[in-house]
Specification:
Layout: E1 4-6, H1 7-18, H2 28-50, E2 55-62, E3 68-70, E4 75-83, E5 88-89, E6 92-94, H3 95-105, H4 111-114, E7 119-123, E8 126-130, E9 137-147, E10 158-162, H5 166-180, H6 187-208, E11 217-221, E12 224-227
Parallel strand pairs: 6-7
Antiparallel strand pairs: 1-10, 2-9, 2-12, 3-8, 4-5, 4-9, 7-8, 11-12
Length: 235
C-alpha cells in the first residue's frame, strides 16, 4: 500500500532544488503555496482525463437499534454504498423517497422489495439505513463519496498523495517558483518533469479504462480509503 507524503518533507525537497536549505528568498509559506498549486494541477489533470472526481470511502460500523450515522466531514456527494457481508450495492434514496417507500410497503418493508440487504437514505450530513439494524456489525457498510479537497497545511502532516507522485509534485512546485522570478527550469529537469507528467497521464488513463465510478489516490488515511482509480485496487 502507498504511504502518504509528509508536507514538511515536500517543502524540504523543493528547498533542495532552490539551493536554499533555510528561508532566504522563499518562506515555507511561499513554497507550500506552490506545492498546493502543484497538487491542484494534478487533480485538475486527472479530472480532465477521467471525466470524474476524486473519491474517498469510509467503513461504517452498524450499531443495533441505530438507524443514522455521520458522514465524513469532507463528503460532498455519496456515489456508492455497499453491503460488505453480502458484497452487493445498496440502493440510495432521498429522505422523501424513503418515506414514499415506507408508506407503500409498510414500516421498513423494504428488504423484501430490494433484496436481503438494506436501503440507504441521505439526510443532511447523515446516512441512514432501512430497516434499522437489529444487531451490531463492524465494517458492515462501505460508503464511497466525492471528497471535498482542502489545502495541504504546514508541518508534519501526512497528505493523501502516494510517494510515487512525490517528484512530480516537487518539480512542478519548483517550476512555479522559478516562473515567479521569470526563470525556467534547467533543461535536464524540464525533461524529467515532462516524463513525470507523461507517466502520470498514462497511469490515470489506464486506470480510467478499468473503472469509471471515480478516481482515487490509493491511500488509507484516518480509516478512510482515498485515491485515484480504480475503486478496486490502488495505484
Amino acid at each position: 500500500m502507498s504511504t502518504g507524503l509528509v508536507t514538511n518533507t515536500l517543502v524540504a525537497d523543493v528547498r533542495m532544488y532552490l539551493d536554499e536549505a533555510t528561508a532566504n528568498q522563499w518562506t515555507d509559506a511561499n513554497i507550500l503555496t506552490c506545492i498546493n498549486f502543484s497538487y491542484w494541477d494534478l487533480l485538475r489533470r486527472a479530472e480532465e482525463l477521467t471525466g470524474t472526481r476524486l473519491t474517498s470511502s469510509t467503513d461504517i460500523d452498524l450499531v443495533a437499534s441505530t438507524q443514522e450515522y455521520d458522514l465524513p466531514s469532507d463528503c460532498e456527494t455519496v456515489v456508492d454504498v455497499r453491503d460488505n457481508n453480502l458484497e452487493v450495492p445498496i440502493p440510495v434514496l432521498t429522505f422523501n423517497e424513503r418515506d414514499f417507500h415506507q408508506d407503500s410497503l409498510g414500516v421498513w418493508g423494504l428488504t423484501g422489495y430490494f433484496g436481503d440487504s438494506y436501503v440507504a437514505y441521505i439526510k443532511n450530513a447523515k446516512i441512514g439505513f432501512c430497516p434499522t439494524p437489529s444487531a451490531s456489525d463492524s465494517d458492515a457498510i462501505t460508503v464511497t463519496y466525492i471528497a471535498e479537497q482542502s489545502e495541504l497545511v504546514a508541518g508534519a502532516k501526512t497528505t493523501q498523495l502516494p510517494n510515487k507522485f512525490k517528484e512530480l509534485i516537487v518539480l512542478n512546485a519548483y517550476k512555479r517558483l522559478k516562473a515567479i522570478r521569470n526563470e525556467s527550469l534547467p533543461p535536464e529537469l524540464a525533461e524529467v518533469l515532462g516524463m513525470q507528467w507523461a507517466s502520470f497521464d498514462a497511469l490515470i488513463q489506464q486506470r480510467d479504462r478499468q473503472d469509471g465510478m471515480g478516481f482515487r489516490w490509493g491511500e488509507v488515511t484516518d480509516d478512510r480509503t482515498t485515491g485515484f482509480l480504480p475503486l478496486r485496487g490502488e495505484l
